[in-house]
Amino acid sequence: MIAPTGVFPTKETPREGRRAASPLLWAWGLAAVVPAAIPIGYLVWTVVRPGGFDAGGFSAERLLDLLAATTLLAVTVTIATAALGLATAWITTRTDVPGARIWSTLVTLPLVIPSYVGAMTMLAASGNNGMLSQLLGRLGLPPLPVFQGFWAVWAALSLWNFSFVHLLIVPVLRRLDPALEEASRGLGAGRWRTIRTIVVPQLRPALASSSLLVSLYVISEFGAVSMLRYETFTRAIYTQFGGRLDPTPALFLAGLLVIGALLVVLIQQWARGKAALYSNRPARSVTTVRLGRWGKLGAWGFLGGLVTFALILPMATLIWWAVRGLMLGNSPLPVLSHAARSLSVSAVAAIVIVVAAIPVSILAVRFPGKRSRALESTAWLTYSLPHLAIGLGFLVLAVRIARPIYQTLLLLVIAYLAMFLPQAMASLESGLRRIGPHLEEASRSLGIGGWTTLRRVTIPLIRRSALAGAALVFLSVMKELPATLLLRPTEFDTLAVRIWSATSELFYTQASFASLTLVAVSFVPLYLFVARDLHR
Amino acid sequence: MPVVRSFLSLLLLGAALAACDETQPSATIDSEESTTTGAPVEDLIVYSGRNENFVTPVIEAFTAATGVEVSVRYGDGTSDLAATLLNEGETTDADVFWAQDPAWIGAIGDQGLLSGLPSDILGLVPEAYQDADGRWVGVTARSRVLVYNPDLVTEDELPQSVSGLVGPEWNGRLGIAPGNASFIAFVSAMELADGPEATLAWLEGIASNGVQTYDGNGPIVDAVIAGDLDAGLVNHYYLLQRMADQGEVSALNHFLAPGDTGALVMATGVGVLAPSGNQEAANEFIRHLLSPQSQEHFATNLFEYGLIEGAPTPEGQVPLADLAGPDINLSDLADHLDTSVELIAQAGLS
Q1: A372, B105, B228, B281: most buried, per Cβ within 10 A?
Q2: pTM to 2 decimals?
Q3: Range of the domain at B183
Q4: Residue A380 phi, psi (nearest 5)
Q5: ipTM
């Protein structure tokens, strides 16, 4: 089926006469998912082995409380990020808001701020001694209460994650064929009905992918929840890990978390829907909604507020600390060696992970079925695990069966592969869904082999998605802490390690140098490969 | 491929930055050099549960004095390094484990991973601050205290014992860090002194008294200084570090009555790993930590108590000799880590 343009829904069932995926593709995909399967297998083993059933003093009631608190946070943050990301994506692609492209870049940038750094700046701003409270005090106003508990964590995780949704939705919105919406309106459907029946189904896969990224991340999050004092399941796992000799209870709890994550993955697969919507670049650009003067002001206010809280305030706090530190005579130069390590290991990991994600994504999108779904889900499950659990799993196994690669960069990159494969997959899969299979089918029908088609048709077509995926992985590796601490070669201290070691003893000046460097280094790939391409 | 090209350029940038920084060559290069040039002394690998900022000056002085290069592996506190060591077992590359508390290093010793220290080292430190079997020795000591904001807590409200903190007058006013190694060691000490039932009762008592749980000692002290929290159970030196940084602050350390669990004094311990092939240099490193210069550094910059004879008392603090925790042996804390964490969880505090 070849259509030159437009969107055409098809059922994702293998069509008659369709080629099966090459065994080599399967081998490549399986090899990519093996590292993700390792910690999961290890956790399952610790839970099912004799005597594994040990929750470390947590009563069933307490565990249910923690699960409920975690679920509440994951659901509310997912909803908030979806709403914020949809709104920013829609305003910057479908309206005539002035400066749309600049705004679109600006709302992407909060991704460079690790949520633990964001949480740190929230604490520094609030409370009796907070910077914002002192400003308010000059105006004769009472101090802000300390930002902590559910709402603070909800706000922090929403502010520093909604950009994922924006990133994945913008390309879809830009490629919606206006003809479909016009046809719907022409056939008498109202505006809302058109949105519900035409626009929403087309957004579903991207929205489902980004929501999965966000919700599983929230489940695994530790830094921001513990700093802002909200009790989640992952925090309980850390308490068990950090406090006692016997790792069994912590691993048992992490095993429970895997089961919870499995439910989330299943929900996502259901929410993504069966329909596959492929679209080429539409013949006409999308219709633009004209905002009136008040509409424009409102849009500016909304985007401006978001950028202020997610980007400007935390950056201002970091800069303030750094300037104070410089004036006290502290040197930021030692941070350069940390930056070099972060940069090199993140770049290597980004390349490896994107290359590994290509077959998994192709299998998931082009060859849907039980086996490819299992492959995809395995990779996703790891994303929900606390990084500490993944790190410890690799540590235990490497010491026992792969001592030569223990405490080497190779092991560290393998662990990153297990943790961040889904980020690359989310980008690649949304790219593959957009281009549709017909170009590849045309290539095959002209007698071109599978590998040549992959190399000359598929990969060039998903080049931008691959770059965007690589940039997202790069950012995550830059920010990763718990597994890096456990698995890095001795003395291979990265920027994240430096930020942690400085903040844990509240050396804010040193933390701010490292944080600003991390932000600056992260900004380059995010801007070059992600933000700038969004509106091309 | 463009992806590869773009990221390779980032990689090159990283390499260029690394080349600019010749002061901190990576650990792998170090070890290669030492084997190829046949250096007379092997590098020392130290697993440090202590913070980089506190450790670096002491290590630089050691290298300057002995010519032995030291590679330091920092962990997220002490427990993850201890877990790493327990997993590595006999295959570990580490020569020295420098822990932040007596419980975890005791656990490493109980697994047979520490070699006995020579008597000249053990003789430097009072017996109360070393392992009963001579496998680790204390470097510094820190006391548990109740830090409080004098604007929010009057002097006659201050309890003599932590048991006073379960009373209704303390409802919602106290902060603790239940996941912190020092708090866990304090709970272990209570278990040793009063038994598990009384310990669980105390934990449940403060839990139902609206205790505020924090991420660590530092955030508690900051909240107390800001007046966002009335008082908290922490180690004594956090406040002193804040005062060195910020000048006069509105918070004070209250030492609980001698003999009370809340007055527990703990050693930060160091030991030599048994599998290390570098025992002599490792012992030399420990002698360096117990040298007058290092002990002076710990007292003036970390505000912890030095342990060798004549070590200075941190400025403005009660002398170590006047502090007295519960009548327990620090070597016994290791056996109670797991049960303490379980009790804390049972009380709903983690």
Answers
A1: B105
A2: 0.86
A3: 142-265+327-346
A4: -65, -35
A5: 0.81
